[in-house]
Amino acid sequence: MAEDFVFGNFLGLPEKTDSVDIAILQVPYELTTSYGQGTALGPEACIEASTQVELFDSDLGEDLPGNQSIFTVQPWDGEGATLLLQLDGISNYLSPWFHGDCFPLVLGGEHGILPPLVNACRNHKLVNNDLSNLTIVQIDAHADLRSELGGEKFSHACAASRSLDLGIKELFQAGIRAYSKEENEIIQSDKRITTFFARDTQNSNGGKVWSQWLEQLDKISGPVHLTIDIDGLDGVLVPATGTPVPGGLTFWQVAETIATLFNSKTATVVSADINEIVPQKDTPLTQFTAAMLAAKVVSSHIISKREGRWQPYSKQQGKIRQLGVGNYFSSQSSKDY
Ligand SMILES: [Mn+2]
Predict the structure, then answer these.
(1) Residue 228 forms part of a structural domain
(2) 152 within some domain
(3) What is the CA(303)–ligand 1 centre distance, in A?
(4) Can you tell me the distance from the alpha carbon of 126 to that of 102, in angstroms, rounded to the nearest whole number?
(5) What are phi and psi of 169, to 5 degrees?
(6) Where are the beta strands (DSSP E) in the chain?
(7) E strand map for 14-83
(8) In degrees rounded to 5, what are phi and psi of residue 23?
(9) Number of domains in the chain
(10) Spatial distance between the Cα atoms of 112 and 321, rounded to a whole number of angstroms
(11) Which one of 22, 53, 276, 305 is at 20 to 30 Å from 190 when CA atoms are compared?
(12) What is the DSSP string of 177-220?
């Protein structure tokens, strides 16, 4: 353990300057996870586990933070009397970090955080308040394309549907292996959606199909948000997540997805989230897997910045920021969804 180790900070790293290069945001939100419980405790567990992640990154060629200032922001406060007010609260918590002066990495919390997170992406200069500029890349076991689950349109099972409703450009999914007939029909008919099913990428011919996934990612242009539901990984790696499913992606496939996106010459990853983290009690494997992926996102971002593919898109705003004041979700009548 380093002498300057700081508990409660991502990777245990101290913040060295007043500027923020990478913001680690925590959204301990749990409303609708099917039968696992504890995603509200996920961000904190991931940050604790991150202190055991090796700081040396072989792609980066040096120790994190790679001369960057990584700032671990206080968690979202959970305020909001109704579900829609909570979604606005999440969006307003995230927004100040989404102006493009730093890179925001969000730790969840259940996947229901995605729509307010996408809404916060409007603030980025490359998105320019027009979500039809934004592509989402999703790692997940579930398509999350339901119209509702148990009467709830903002269920985690609807995260991708609600993001499409917000008007995003395209959605690319991999790891998908648990989905309904309705979701299958949406995947086949909605031209904005490209889905790579786990049965095709993980079988004995999977290597070829996996290469096609990486080729697809390489063709994306413009701003991208990367959303990693850790249940996209095989259940053995993340047994404590809300709904672990066998037959999923390997750790290295997800790491390769991250690296490919951040290495793209045409796309800019403007933000990322890692969600459905649940603390595992007998072994820290689940939260440690999430922390390893978080570190990979951070190192990949630093490489893209170093190589000129990411640059600050607005003036540095420092560590103390005003919360957003939007009311996008609470101003929608529930029948609009
Ligand atoms: Mn999901």
Answers:
(1) yes
(2) yes
(3) 27
(4) 13
(5) -75, -55
(6) 22-27, 56-57, 62-63, 70-72, 103-108, 135-139, 170-176, 193-197, 222-229, 267-275
(7) 22-27, 56-57, 62-63, 70-72
(8) -105, 125
(9) 1
(10) 24
(11) 276
(12) -B--HHHHHHHHH-TTEEEEEHHHHSSTTHHHHHHHHHHHHHH-
Q: Is residue 2 one of the residues assigned to a domain?
A: no
Distance 183 CA to ligand 1 centre (A): 13
C-alpha span between 11 and 328 (Å, rounded): 34
User: Distance, CA 299 to ligand 1 centroid (Å)?
Assistant: 24
pLDDT score, position 32: 58
**Structural domain of 166:** 19-336
Report how far Cα 202 is from the mean position of its chain's Cα atoms. Answer: 22
**Residue 37, SS3?**
coil
- Residue listed under structure tokens 């919390």: 109
CATH of the domain at 98: 3.40.800.10
Of 89, 112, 106, 127, nearest to 271 by C-alpha is: 106
- The Å distance, Cα 334 to ligand 1 centre, comes to 22
**List of the chain residues with pLDDT < 70:** 1-3, 32-36, 333-337
Residues forming a β-bridge with 258: none
Please report the pLDDT score of residue 290 as a whole number.
98
Chain CA centroid to CA 43, Å: 12
Query: Ligand 1 center to residue 302 CA distance, Å?
Result: 26
The first and second tokens of residue 152, run together, are: 């709830």
Give 230 Cα–ligand 1 centroid separation in angstroms: 8
Ligand 1 centre to CA of 270 (Å) is 20
pTM listed for this prediction: 0.96
| Residues making up the chain, counted from first to last | 337
176 Cα to the center of ligand 1, angstroms: 10
Q: Give residue 159 CA to ligand 1 midpoint distance, Å.
A: 7
Asked if residue 8 is part of any domain, the answer here is: no
- Which residues, 6+ apart, have CB-to-CB distance to 207 below 8 Å? none
Distance 276 CA to ligand 1 centre (A): 7
CA of 142 to the centre of ligand 1 (A): 6
